[in-house]
Amino acid sequence: MEELLVMRQPNSRRKATYVASQEAIHLLQHLGAYLITGGPFGDPMGLFYLKLPSENLVSACGLFPRLGYSEIVEQVVIVSDDLIRNKNELSRWKGKYYRLEKLYQADTKAIRDMSPDRREFLLPTEDGGVRHIVGYRGDGGLLSRRGLPVIDSRMLVNLVYNPKLERFLDPFAGAGGLVVEAVAHNFETYSTDIDPKVRFGLQFLGAKHTVADARQLPFPSCYFHSIASEPPYEEVATDTICESLLELDRVLHPDGRVALLIAESQYIKISECAKNIGWQIELDHPINRKGLPVNVLSWRKTTNQV
After folding, report:
1. Neighbours of 8 (CB within 10 A)
2. Are 230 and 261 in contact (CB under 8 A)?
3. pLDDT digits (tens, 9 = 90+) for 238-265
């Protein structure tokens, strides 16, 4: 038997339903989940349907809190004729009546409390110590904008999720939003950043951190199973990001995955660089985050590259 689920997006990501569907499939595909088109409640913006084997529903429910772009998950339940009291409260599809049973709803307050402006972080002091601060989002420098929203961090980590492959890297870790989510997934979580000021904060969040340039990573070849990051959006950083892709390819395990959230202005160069390396594209989609146009890209490293 299979269960039919309705996955609903938060209002801020209602136009990113396709991205949400790909995130959910990457998170749940090892449980046999797959997408379907159409269902008893139509196809309005902000929802999609997936099916999965009934015996895996409990395991899937344990992963729903890790979703970023789906905030409500409902199970579609057939209502037998003898139990129908008010047809107006039901949906009719393919000759049968259906109702919804809520399986999961995101705790928006908890997510808000985990946001960058409320998250605790550590920074070095001039006397060689460390200080605790709340809400670190960079020092205002051109390449120091930090603070990826929780749901975007979750989405990126889910795009590279594989329960059998455990080693994760964020090579442009910044304030550590992806580190938090990778640790929550029980990844063996590594981070690098060229800015030495963030080293204590990233270690505090749970990463095995190294101060390093993403173009020269201090790791063995084929070491990481999953890589995800939000590199600097400034156009002056685009060439550096492209150069780093070659290094990411070196440290990426065969059949490993990479996911990046990049500025729209960087899209052509970065996507072309990844194509030249030979990565297989899995997701390529624009997202408008409160007026900030970005693109999410994810790839798989194919075994014929190595």
Report:
1. 21
2. yes
3. 999 999 999 999 999 998 999 999 999 9
Asked if 168 and 225 count as a contact pair (C-beta separation under 8 A), the reply is yes
Q: Are 192 and 169 in contact (CB under 8 A)?
A: yes
Report the relative pairing of strands 280-289 and 130-134 from DSSP bridges: unpaired
164 vs 59 pLDDT, higher one: 59
Q: How many CA atoms lie within 13 A of 138 on its CB side?
A: 15
Joined together, the tokens standing for residue 252 give 């990426």
Q: How is residue 189 written in tokens?
A: 């979580």
pTM above 0.90, yes or no: yes
Q: What angle do CA 171, 62, 156 make, to 5 degrees?
A: 25
Closest CA relative to residue 218, chosen from 226, 208, 210: 210
Max CA-CA distance within the chain?
75
Strand 224-229 versus strand 167-170 pairing type: parallel
pLDDT digits (tens, 9 = 90+) for 150-184: 999 999 999 999 888 789 999 999 999 999 999 99
How many angstroms separate the CA atoms of 274 and 243, rounded? Answer: 10
Q: What is the C-alpha to C-alpha distance for residues 191 and 171, in angstroms, rounded to an integer?
A: 6
